[in-house]
Design brief:
By secondary structure, the protein is mostly beta strands. The strands form two sheets. A twelve-stranded antiparallel beta barrel has the order 1-4-5-6-7-8-9-10-11-12-13-14. The chain is globular and about 60 Å long. The N and C termini lie far apart (about 70 Å). The N terminus is likely disordered.
Length: about 250
């Protein structure tokens, strides 16, 4: 009887193991590699003209070297402007720190920006605080941002709202589009001395990123923009379109 009992138990154990085994190779996917804690990158962007918030800041093409590092929602970046033929050629550098967080469909960000720019032998500097909120709708997001100067142009305020989306074009290309409307608030008065002008530039930005290697991509882009207020448009005389090509390294 004892031998029979042992045989029955052994057969039951073998049956359980056989039931758990699969007849073919495992179809479970290998675990995906963990997201890097720190990411960083650099790019060089060649642009047909430097235009910032409707203000043209160059006579012709400029080169924008920049670099950034991100970790745990915080991004520190450095932007520089080089204008060939201008003295000094390197006439601006901006340092910014951004904290971004996403909760469900809502993404919020707060940014500190320190601008330093040269006009001949004279160098000036100012500081802005920028808040941004985006809410995912459809293939993209509705967003709004508010920048206000707390230094040299204290009281200057610039608001922007619009819709942005990104779409994959195959396995190596990405299309990014956004359309925005800006509101001068006191920005145009502080920077150009023009009052009673509310609506700022209406803009459409289109960019296509093409991955050429694991860490290297290129990004041609175009910005179409128009200032509705004829007085300001004549005063500033910005181009209707600017074009650029960026080379990007990202790790």
């Amino acid at each position: 009887m004892r031998a029979i009992a042992v045989a029955v138990i052994w057969s039951a154990l073998v049956g359980i193991v056989a039931a758990q085994d699969t007849s073919g190779p495992s179809t479970a996917l290998p675990p995906s590699p963990p997201e890097p804690v720190i990411t960083w990158g650099a790019e060089v962007d060649v642009v047909s003209k430097y235009v910032w918030r409707g203000f043209p800041y160059s006579q012709g093409k400029v080169v924008w070297p920049s670099a950034w590092v991100s970790a745990r929602g915080v991004t520190v970046s450095l932007f520089t402007n080089i204008e060939p033929g201008y003295d000094p050629a390197l006439n601006e550098y901006d340092i910014s720190v951004t904290y971004e967080r996403t909760v469900g469909r809502l993404t919020v960000a707060a940014t500190y920006v320190r601008y330093a720019y040269g006009e001949g032998a004279l160098w000036l500097a100012t500081t802005e605080l920028v808040g941004r909120a985006g809410y995912a709708v459809g293939p993209g997001e509705i967003f709004a941002s508010h920048a206000f100067d707390v230094d040299l142009y204290r009281g200057s305020s610039y608001l922007e709202a619009g819709y942005a989306f990104t779409r994959e074009l195959g396995s190596k290309s990405t299309l990014s589009v956004d359309a925005t409307v800006a509101f001068w608030s006191t920005f145009i008065e502080k920077y150009a001395g023009v009052s009673n002008s509310t609506i700022g530039p209406l803009s459409v930005n289109v960019a296509c990123t093409r991955q050429l290697a694991r860490h290297f991509s290129v990004r041609p882009h175009v910005t179409l923009s128009r200032i509705p207020d004829a007085r300001v448009r004549i005063l500033l005389n910005p181009p209707a379109a600017t074009f650029g090509l960026a080379a990007v390294l990202e790790f």
